[in-house]
Design brief:
The complex is a heterodimer of chains A (about 110) and B (about 120). Chain A is about 0% helix and about 50% strand. In chain A, the strands form three sheets. In chain A, strands 1-11-8-3-4 form a five-stranded mixed β-sheet, with no helix packed on it. A four-stranded antiparallel β-sheet of chain A has the order 2-7-6-5, with no helix packed on it. Chain A is globular, with a radius of gyration of 14 Å. Classes of the chains: A mainly beta (about 110), B mainly beta (about 120).
Amino acid sequence: LAKTTQPISMDSYEGQEVNITCSHNNIATNDYITWYQQFPSQGPRFIIQGYKTKVTNEVASLFIPADRKSSTLSLPRVSLSDTAVYYCLVGDPAVSGTYKYIFGTGTRLKVLA
Amino acid sequence: NAGVTQTPKFQVLKTGQSMTLQCAQDMNHEYMSWYRQDPGMGLRLIHYSVGAGITDQGEVPNGYNVSRSTTEDFPLRLLSAAPSQTSVYFCASSSSINRDRDYGYTFGSGTRLTVV
């Protein structure tokens, strides 16, 4: 079972860098790691995805160590609008041979002024 | 605009009634899923599909049926609504079921269902 574990909540101040780590000890060899952001009353929104090492896009960076048992989402210089719940997601192999995607509890980030 | 469209946005049902939540995507995505999210909680997988004609159960499939007759549509049917099914339902799709080319989910805006 590719269960993910994240901190339940984090607080940060505006302008700071925020790092959220997710552990996924049983990740499949060829599986990607994906992070999502969810605001209240909205569906999750894709942030970033990676397989190994480091990935960067216009909103975040994703760090994945060589053993791939964890990943860290890095949000540079957060603002109040980054207050949201952040989820990491990996595939869970199903008996049928397919993958299903089960969300963990997510990390509730609160950015303070 | 391209994306995942869910209808209706809001629905109130009486206990025992049945209904179908609609989900359609126009991105030619193979992989589609249904999740429910209870207030203040995370998302739980109900059913998913890896392509037309192929569906499988998620974490909480009881009380729900799905079918996938076309690539575009993935309706979720509540067989006999119960108050415990009061939740927000999200449909999501992804471009590939190939584990080496997964580009992540696109989510719909959700259906808020209340069962009284």
